[in-house]
Each structure stands twice: as structure tokens, then as C-alpha cells.
Amino acid sequence: MNVSNSRREEPPKRGRAPREPKEPREKAKHPILRALGRTLATLICLGIMVCSLAAVAAVYYAVQATANDGNLLDLDNIELSQSSTVVATDPDTGAQVEYATLRSSNSHRVWADLEQIPTNLQYAFICTEDKDFYNEPGVNFKRTIGAMVNEYLLPIYSSKQGASTLEQQLIKNLTSDKSASGVEGALRKLREIYRALCLSRAYSKETILEAYLNTISFTGTIQGVQTAANEYFNKDVSQLTLWECATIASITKNPTNYNPYTNPENLIHRRNFIMYNMWQQGIISEEDYRNGAAQPLVLAEEDTNKKTSSVTSYFTDALFTEVVHDIMDKEGVDESTAQSMLYTGGYTIEATVNPKMQTAMENLMLNEGDAYFPAGWHEEEVTSISDDGVQVMNADGTPKTRTGDDGTVYYYRNVRTQAAMVTLDYDGNVLAMVGGLGEKTKSLSLNRAYSVTRQTGSTIKPIGAYALGVEYGLVNWSTMLNNSPLYQKQDMVIRDEDYCRKNGLMGLSDSQLKAYPNAWRSWPRNYGGNYGDGSDLPLWNGLARSLNTIAIRVGDLVGASNIFNFVYNTLQLTTLDPANDVGLAQMVMGSQTHGVTPTALAAAFQIFYDGEYTTPHLYTRVLDRDGNIYLENNATSYQALTPQTAYIMNRLLKNVLYSNVGTASGRYPNSNGMESFGKTGTASDEKDLWFVGGTPYYVTAVWWGYDAPYDMTNTLGKNQAKTRTCVTAWKAYMEQVQANLPYKAFPTSDGVVERAYCTQSGLLAGANCPSRATGYYRADDLPDTCNYSHSSGVAAAQSADTAPVVGQDTTGLDTD
To answer: What does the alpha-carbon distance between residue 564 and residue 573 come to, in Å, rounded to a whole number?
Structure first.
């Protein structure tokens, strides 16, 4: 059938088909950029390859270098290190005997389990030394890389940065691998990092922390927190308070700088810094921090039941310090590391100490009943209280205090005079040393004989002005010098500081001050305040009487700069101040900025034996545990004065003791007829008193005063013969130690002759001179001969070649 008008179905409409996407065209790059990109990519690949190879090589090196560690880092059974031994020569037999032991054994390290150690003590170390201790794998790579970049590439920090974790510090304590400079230092660091990673994998953090806290070093031969708690606070470690924990953690940073007995103020600052870190890191509260920071440093009183055999002598203390410094120089390590090496390294130290002399000096310096050195107690204001003095209490039993404007609390303690003594031979060997009065109760306590500087007073006169005056031929035994000030008041050269201070003139210049005649004074004065009588005196008399007026005239001839150069460079008095001590007051009268130590001053007086100077030293050699020489002392010897000058000065200084005008007249030791020489010294306001004396065997320096300089006339009065105190102690000591020694004379010099001189002119005596005495002169530099005329009473000079030789029986030295 046909169907009309039927509709034809049409396909549905569609959208326009999308065009096929074209492949994006690469934008053309500049040929140079393409080359740079390929080069950079190549360099990066090479860098990665090199770094990978370096890392592999570093790991291989570290594995090989530590392959023989064995039980070195076995924390389950830490082997006690070998103590170091000090040996000395027995003066009777000549044999080497043990004198002392520098140990880290049970008597100086008591192990404490971690459970016994307070959490505050644990975190006192962690918060300051290694705050990420519990979260790091034994090494803090971020800090290590930063420290390496700062050290070797770019100074990104203002100071040298430490990066050692507690694991790394423990490794230093347990191994002798401590070299820290140059390439070897970098390799040592690599070994340390590898060991720390291995240690961290092998042991728990608790085991590592326990080992660390039991092996760290403190002052002296103290190791471990248990021993430190007992030593400093007389407590078990579990009983320590927060501030006591922070105190103990402070010391290990630098045992000398933070020594609680010698540097308490430094220690308090460090202690408070540690507690601040603990507060900031959420270990303690702000209230705990502030309460702890307000506590004074109060150390334990000496336990009379405690054995004192572990307390080292002053000599051993100084020896320990000297060897530690030499190890630091040799190995390039810090002080704490060098100390650890010394008392765990098994070294044998050949010391210069004479045990019998050391014992004799210690017994004398016990000063029982104030036999030699009067006490002279007075109150002293301090910012902390240690066991060095007696705290002053109020009537109600509370401590006497004062609060400063800045809030600082000041305490008061009663202190007494102290003293120090040291003896050397003429080869620079330190034979005996005591750095304080009374029984020594602490190891490495303040050593006034070795490490404390004092103004020299008149003891500097012979080693500077007089010695160089004779050496340069400017003066001789009988040179006549005027006993009057070098500068008179009317010369307007020397200011009267007291007058200027009272009258508000301190700010005026010298030219402005010329309008005030009373603002000037004559200078110098002699001891006791007199200005001399204006007479002419021979040089020997001025030296024997220690007259400043005579010494200054000699010093003026020599020149202050010449004297300074000689005592600073030749006699190695290097604690003098080149900026402020080049002047006649400092170089002749001894009013220096800091002064010198008794050990250094005694060494300077060696030159009056034969003119030779030798650096003072406390050991000859240090041997390792295999008997090999590890260290030799670096002492040097050289001729500081000619033998002729040395002998003349020896005879001049004999007059201090043997002449009836000498400042130590009659106080020479009675030692089998042996002679001696010496020089007294008094610093301004009698704050420091000295005597340095020599015999044919020994030279000894004695100092007496307060630790904080203080005028002794305020406590001991003006009439007490304080200047005789030091020489009296020296005389008693010398008579004991020389009692059984054979007679010995000082060496003479062929270039020195005895001659009679005229006591009126100071020239060699002529036939008509009415009064004469004997002097010692260089044969090649004799004075002229006096041609005295009876008719006129006038002395004149004639050629020295005609002067007669006078023998030993000529009239005495004190005739004028």
C-alpha cells in the first residue's frame, strides 16, 4: 500500500566535531641557555656522585678507624681509666718515689644509678648542652653542619659554635681520641660522629645519660655527679636542690673559670643561666627559676671526719695546671678535655718538687698560733659566701647584708691576712710551694704562690734599676747619690692626688694646674713618709736601706722603658702591663697595675747567682703509660746579666741582711756559715709585703697581705714591725731545710775586684782619704781615685789606674 505524505526520519542534530588538538610547539631556547642548563645538570649529577663517593669513603674510613675500639665504649662495663702518677726525687737516696696520684678512681668517682640522680640535675645538663637529646640519633646534624660551615666556609655566627651531643661528649670522656685541630681535627670529628651513631643504636638514652653523668669532670680530680655532690655540698646526689643541681652542671663548662672556690661570681652567673634555660624549655616554673637565682652560693663546710689524703698539695695543684696547659697546647684541646686526659691517661710526671722541703714549708705555713703571720681580721663585703672566710652575723643570728641600688645583695665575711711562699733552685726547678696559710682542705684551691699577682713594692728595685745601672756602667758600688726627691714641689711635675681630689681639681690638665702651687708635691718619699735629708749617700747604702730617693735617681739614669723591657722580656714578668707600667713609679717603686706572682718574682732573683735566668718549671718530663716521652718542659735558660754584674749585685744585696743599716739587718739564716742575700718590699699603704732571699742553694719569695688588697695598718697598727714578718719566716724555713747541707759559697767572678773607696767622694780611696770602706767593682770599669787634700778638705779625682788593691780585712761596709 502506498502511503502518501509520509515523513522521512532525520538523524539527530550534532554539534560541530572538535578539531584535533595540535601538538604544542616547543619554544626555541637560546643556545647559550641550553648549554648552561646542560652544564648545570651535569655538575649537579657529578656533585651528587662525588658526595655519594665522599660519604661512602667517610663511612669506610670511620668503620676502619674505629675497628679496634673493642670495649672502649662498652657502657655495660666501663673500665676505669689509669691514674696519672707524680714522681719526685728522694733528696736522701736520689731514687724516684711516688709523690702524688692524679686519679679518677673510686675515691674521686662514685657511680650513681640514673634513678638516684634528680630529674633537675639531668635536665640541667640536657637543657644547656643538648636540648634535643631524647629526639636525635646521637648526632645533631643541623648543628653539626652549621658549625662546620661557620668554621671552615662562611662565618654565619658571631662566635665559634659547639655542636657536640651528650653522646659525643661521653665519647670524649671515654676515649683518648681528642685531637682537635686542622685535618686531624676534622677526621677526629668524623670518628666521633660515627661512634655516636653506633652508641645511640646500641644503648638506650637512659644508659647513655647515666654514663655521661658519671664520667664528666669537675675541679681537681673530681669526676661524676655523685662525687661532686659530696665534695661541694656534702650531700648524696639524690638530695640536691634545684640551684645545687644547676651549680654542679655549671662547673664542667670550664672548671677553672667556674671553680666554686676561686671564681664564685662567675659560677653564679652560669648557674642562673642554666636555670633560665630550664624555665624557658618548660622543665621548671618561673617561680622555681627566680627562687633558685636568688640563692647565694653556699658550699659545704669542711668535714673534719673526711680523709684529707685526697687533698692535693699546692705544688701538685700548680703542677696539674701546668701540665694541663701543656696538653692543651700539644693536642689543641680545651681545658676540660686536657684535664680528663691527665687523670685518666696513666701518665708518669717527673716533678721538680723536693718532698722534704715541701713538707717543711707546709708545716711552717700552718702558722699555728699565728707564729709567723699575724691574722689582722677585718670585715669584707662580697656578693657570695664560700668557705674561704667566716660569715658575719647580726645580733639576732641573721646574716649581715646590704642591698645595693641595683638590687644586688652584699654579704659580709671576716677575713684575715694570707701568705704565700715558693722556693726554686738556680736551674729554675720549683722545689716547694705553699699558696695559703693554715691546713689545705680543697684540691685546686686558690694558689697565691702560683696564680695570684701582687704589686712588687721595692723588690723590683734590684732586678731592674740597680742591676741595669751596674750593667750599663752608669753607677757603681760607691756612686754618691743625693738623698732627696728627684722632683721638688716647686718643679710642678708630680700631682698631689689627695689635694686635687679634695679641692675638685682632678679634671684639670697639668698646664691648668700650674695655677695651684699646693696641687703639687715632692716625689718620691721614702718609707715612713720622709723626703730624705739631702745628703749624698753611696749607692750600696741606698739599696740596703731601700731608699726610694736613691733608687729613683738610679732608675732615672737607666730609663723606665729600659727597665720595663728587661724585666718583661728578659726576666719574663709578663703579667706587667705594657700600656700602664712603663714609668719610674711602677718600675722602681713597684706600684704596678697588676704586679707579679711570687713564683715569677723568685725566678727573677735567680740572676743574682751567676747572671743566668731559667724559666721556672714544675716538671721535667711526662711519660705515657708505655714509658715514652709525651711532654718535656719548655723551660729556657740564658744569660740575663754578665757574671760580673751578678756578683756585684749579690754583694750589694748581702748588705740588706748583714749591714747594720739594712732593712732586714741580722735576719740571715744560720746555715753552717753560708751567706745569703735578699730584698724587702712594701707596696703602697702596706697592702702587700714581700721578702725575696737567696742562699747558695735556693731562692725563695715570701708574700703577705690580704686577698683583696687592704691597708694592714688599719688592722695591725702602725708600730708593729710588719716589714720583718716575711724575712723572719724565710729565715726559719731556710735554717730548717739547709741544716744538713754541706757548706757552699756563691760563685765569684774573675772580672770583679775589691777596692777601698773614699766615703766622702765615693771614688777609689787615695793616700790622704780620712775615711774609707770596701766595695766591689768591675775591673774594667773602676772609678777614678780620690785626691783628697787635708788642707782644704776637698776630694778630687785622679786616674783610676793608680788605685791600690785592698784585701778582705779592709774596714767594714757600714763605716759611712
So the answer is: 9
pLDDT in tens, 284-342: 999 999 999 999 999 886 543 343 457 899 999 999 999 999 999 999 999 888 988 89
Q: Which three cell numbers stand for residue 31?
A: 643556545
| Strand ranges (E), 583-716 | 612-614, 619-623, 629-632, 637-639, 677-682, 688-694, 699-705
How far apart, in whole angstroms, are the C-alpha atoms of residue 303 and residue 307? 9
Whole-model pTM: value is: 0.72
- Residue in the structure block whose three cell numbers are 722632683: 487
Cβ-defined contacts of 324-333 (< 8 Å, 24+): 326/622, 326/631, 326/633, 326/634, 327/631, 330/631, 331/178, 331/179, 331/180, 332/179, 332/180, 332/181, 332/182, 332/185, 333/178, 333/179, 333/180
| 772-781: pLDDT as tens digits | 999 999 999 9
The residues near 143 (Cβ < 8 Å, ≥ 6 apart) are: 161, 162, 163
Higher pLDDT among residues 6 and 573, named by residue: 573
Dist CA 310 CA 103 (whole Å): 10
Confidence (pLDDT) at 161: 45
- Measured CA to CA, the distance from residue 43 to residue 560 in angstroms comes to 66
Long-range (24+ apart) CB contacts under 8 A made by 324-327 are 326/622, 326/631, 326/633, 326/634, 327/631
Cα 286 to Cα 419: distance, rounded to the nearest angstrom: 45
Determine the Cα–Cα distance for residues 167 and 785; give it in Å rounded to an integer: 82
pLDDT band at 813; cut points 50, 70, 90: very low
* Nearest alpha-carbon partner for 800 in 764, 758, 754: 764
Beta strands in 599-683 (DSSP E): 612-614, 619-623, 629-632, 637-639, 677-682
Distances (CA, A) of 276 to 287, 349, 352, 360, 651: 11, 42, 46, 49, 63
Paired residues of 73 in beta bridges: none
**Per-residue pLDDT tens digits for 69-125:** 656 677 876 644 567 889 999 999 999 998 998 865 434 566 789 999 999 999 999
Sign of torsion over alpha carbons 370, 371, 372, 374 = positive
Cell 732571699 sits on residue:
693
Burial (Cβ within 10 Å: 0-12, 13-18, ≥19) of residue 159 = exposed
Of 459, 395, 447, the closest CA to residue 421 belongs to: 447
Write the CB contacts of 156 (distance below 8 Å, at least 6 apart in sequence): 146, 149, 150
Query: In this structure, which long-range contacts are made by residues 139-144, counting pairs with CB atoms below 8 Å and at least 24 apart in sequence?
Result: 139/165, 139/167, 139/168, 139/193, 139/196, 139/197, 139/200, 140/165, 144/193
DSSP at 800: G
As given in the structure block, the three cell numbers for residue 728 are 723572719
Neighbours of 561 (CB within 10 A): 11
**pLDDT value, residue 102:** 83
> Would you state the pLDDT for residue 486?
97
- Look at residues 310, 333, 338, 309 and name the one whose alpha carbon lies nearest to residue 323: 338
Query: For residues 776 and 651, is the Cβ–Cβ distance under 8 A?
Result: yes
- Cα separation of 599 and 590, whole Å? 17
- SS3 assignment, position 417: coil
Residue type, 269: H
| Sign of the alpha-carbon dihedral angle for 432, 434, 439, 440 | negative
Nine-digit cell at 280? 624557658
DSSP secondary structure, 520-538, as one string: EE-BPPPTTS----S-EEE
Contact (CB, 8 A) for 602 and 422: yes
Label residues 431-459 b or e (16+ Cβ within 10 Å = b): bbbbbbbeebebbbbbbbbbebbbbbbbb
